[in-house]
Amino acid sequence: MSSFTGDLTITLVLTITGTAHTIPAGNVKSLELSLTPYGFNGKVSFVVSCEESTDALFTPMSTLNDLIEVSLQVKAYSNDSDAVITPLILSGLATTRGFSEQTLGNILKSQAFMLHRHYHLEFADPAQVLWKQHFPCELLTDTTLKALITAHKSAKIDLLFDWAAVLDKSYPVLTLSLGAPGSQASFYDYLIWLVDTNNGVFSYNFATKKYSLSTAKIQTGTVQSFSFLEVSSFSVEFPEVIRYQPKVLNAYSESPLNTAIANVPMATPIRRDYIQRYPIAADMTARVTLETARLKQHLHEVWVDYSSFQMEVTPPGKLVDFKGSSAWNASLFVHANTYQVREWRLVAHSVHQELTLNLNNTYSRYTMEHSLKLDLKAELNVALPPYVLPIYPFFVEGKVLSEQGEDTDVTYQFYTDKDTSINYYQINIPLWADKKVRAAYQSNMDTGQFYFPPYKKARVLVGLGFDSAVITQFLDWGSGTALPLDSQGNQLVMGKSTTSQNIIKHTYVDSKPDLQIQRTDAKDTELLQFSDGYIILRTQLEEGEG
Questions:
Q1: How would you classify residue 18: left for phi > 0, otherwise alpha for psi between -120 and 50, otherwise beta?
Q2: N or C: which end of the chain has fewer CB within 10 A?
Q3: pTM for this structure?
Q4: β-sheet bridge partners, residue 172
Q5: What angle do CA 15, 158, 294 make, to 5 degrees?
Q6: pLDDT for 328-351, tens place per residue?
């Protein structure tokens, strides 16, 4: 990347607890910016004088922890009053901050005079700053992703939705696992992961300062031609071609499938498998459709280096071409194409790095490196930041719900989804105000020869997935099931209550095994007991009133 020297007008305003602090353009010593389709990061340093007035920034920058709102405008400086200049305008939040100080010492050691402070801070777009510190655990039922995301949207984050197929779909269960043990993923990671895995778009509009979740890239607006005089050089790069063949594998034993997705440049037998269990055929079909859409060959990219700062700034998302001047030769590879800016970068350091104020508060001279990265307008791949995978499942305790019988009865109940005919349990989750969550109706750790559905109010460990729940463990003994330690016994209690049940009990009596099988129905009791030297068979009916 080539460097050059030029004049910039940099307007910096820091707003803290409602008070705006404006930094004169000539006081900005350095600026680094990295802009992408999904947001931006920046670093800035500036000098504040303490000689003639109090440094109003010192107290809020050194003692307060309030949000620092950063407003920045960068534009080329020109003496030509007819020059068309379009500035770059950013609004973000500060992350880290610091300063150094310079004093003037007098003859007396007890005297010192503060000359100025040199501040530096880093900042980024609001979604990065806030959501990267957001690690919620949450359970929602019968809701949409749009509702979930909206509930976690800060007032500083303006978010638009244009992705109905994914965001407006109703889920019986939706969870956030971001505070689970071992999880390093923030809400920002979760959102980017969601977009990446569902073939969506997360973007930031530098003109409106709004984010959007959409089905496709936004490619509207007027095409701007590059100035031949501003561009130092450009190069074309072709990303690696996808050589694998995607395959979606359904590991459901009742309907196993292995569906290949066509990829013309594939190199046999190289493949990328996506394996999952899909008991519902429509889910398998949807996954094949998704992976087919996600298979997008990357088109060529263009790196553009500048020899002067752009008079008309083209931030990410802006459509551009190389046709605005006859100086762009028509034989150039890039001449016939329309591109979209993907990355915009600037590194600027004041020519005068000594810690003195620039008396010219209109502009300052900087040594700069300035470059852009372009995608073809036809490029379907979406630029996303790297992210940490959310961890699923995470675990909470619940109590099994059954509407069968009386409240005190030990009953079980499963429910049937009207759309899929899939059976499930209902579990109350005390942590979230006894919210009812659907859990898979399955045998858990039992083999198929045993049928012991979880009973009412049983305390269970529930594994919560992204959009599902499953009972993973039972956490207590049923009422009346546990036996005294000295019996060294085992017991199987089956039934609704102590007056309607069957019990198979093995214990030790005088260090000898004893086996009982007992049936109880109200006042009617039958007992078969095997003890040392005898067998008891007894039926008993207690007398009732009358």
A1: left
A2: C
A3: 0.91
A4: none
A5: 130
A6: 999 999 999 999 999 999 999 999
